[in-house]
Amino acid sequence: MGFCKDFAWGAATSAYQIEGAAYEDGKGPHIWDVFCCDNGRIACGESGDVACNHYHRFREDVAMMKEMGLKAYRFSLSWARILPDGTGAVNEAGIRFYQELIDALLDAGIEPYITLFHWDYPYALQQRGGWMNPESVEWFGNYARVVAEYFSDRVVNFFTLNEPQCFIGLSYQDGVHAPGVKAPVQDTFLMAHHVLMAHGRAVQMMRKYAKQEIRIGYAPTGSMSYPDSDRPEDIEAARTHLFAIPEQADRWTWNVSFWSDPVLFGTYPEEALERYGHLMPKFTQEEMRLIAQPIDIYGQNIYNGNRIRCGKDGKPEIVPRWQGFPKTALNWPVTPECLYWGPKFLYERYGKPIYITENGLSCHDAVSVDGRVHDPNRIDFLHRYLRCLKQSAEDGVDIRGYFQWSLMDNFEWHSGYAERFGLVFVDYQTQQRIWKDSAYWYRDLIRSNGDMID
Ligand code: BGC
């Protein structure tokens, strides 16, 4: 018992965070290219122009993944590298890059998992209104068709969107991510509706144009909720809390069910309709059917969660964290229980095979006097989290894979290069890759198919 025999032990990255070559070989600009040119938006004025230079070093990086024993690699395609204007002419050089990357992965025995969109929205389409424009649904569908035509002969696994919560919430609610706009709340609901329809349209188009049977899913995120005790009322409180819709309108994107119920059930959650119906666009049943195209796999990016108990009034209540509660370099709480209860609650509700499409942490990693990078905190974190995930699998949750975020240190959005999330340390001066201790640990863990953890 434990992880299934063909468990997808993987690591994840995204295009803008690692590729570099931002202005090479015919790639079109996207909103992050533009945003990073705007003074003061990104820590230290940094950008993903060079990042890990993976565009030119991908063979070396794939060799590294092979040595680490990765079974799977989740990466995203840069839409504007493939379609410089977002629609229209295809950039052959961009296609070639991804085909070569895929071939290298397959030669190394590593299963590619492609994410179609991880936040780098083509600038040409942004100028036409981006997600506000109802045509954005077809733009994404058309892009998905191109992806199917060029890559589905050798790739089976696809995720449409990475974390819509963030690319609407951080971008248009908080205004800290590209394009850095604080939009009226009605607009954020309209964009969300288009985003969900775009997901459905992409699923349709990929199935229609795929060259073989593919497996397609979605990769949202969410803060998980776990019970304070094993008393049934605390468990129920945690479950309710996990799927609840936030009460503050300017925080509404931070939830699970608004983004997943439509995709899996074809309906918006009742609570969302009651609370925010007056701010949401009018929608038709046909649109809801489009959103709810059948998917095969369900991804979820899980980093942390809240401990929940049943309050005196019978409502879920967050158990406050205490001073000195374990935290990562980014001050995110360390809450391993979220990898037990999160998948469990999600599987109960949605009933799809689950992939943890991202999980990990940033640490204050540095090269030590011995030339190595010692990251005991990351090893401890992974050990604790994966022990919970294993327990979840043993208790009957259909967990098919786990992608560590991230394969290597990379451009952490508006924090620039300040945060190091990688299993592999990147020296940005020289582009040297140095395995952190956790990379060796992860390699051994994969070899044992997770048996190494108790
Ligand atoms: C995103 C990644 C990001 C990571 C760490 C996730 O929300 O998908 O792109 O680097 O978290 O912040």
Structural features, described:
Strand 8 (305-310) and strand 9 (316-318) form a beta hairpin. This protein has an eight-stranded parallel beta barrel, surrounded by five helices. The chain has a three-stranded mixed β-sheet with strand order 6-8-9. A two-stranded antiparallel ribbon has the order 12-13. The model has no long low-confidence stretch (mean pLDDT 98). The chain is of the alpha/beta class and 454 residues long. Helix content is 39%, strand content 15%. It is built from 16 helices and 13 strands. Helix 8 (164-173) packs antiparallel against helix 9 (185-209) and helix 14 packs parallel to helix 15 (376-394). Bound molecules: beta-D-glucopyranose (BGC). Beta-D-glucopyranose (BGC) binds at residues 14, 17, 162-163, 166, 221, 301, 358, 405, 412, 421.
Descriptive labels:
binds beta-D-glucopyranose; three-stranded mixed sheet; 16 helices; 13 strands
Write the element-wise H/E pattern from the N-terminal end onward.
EHHHEHHEHHEHHEEHHHHEEEHEHEEEH
Any ligands, ions or cofactors bound here, and which? beta-D-glucopyranose
**How large a portion of the residues is in β-strands, by DSSP E?**
5-15%
Helix percentage range: 25-40%
Oligomer: single chain
Give the beta-strand count. 13
Helix-strand makeup class? alpha/beta
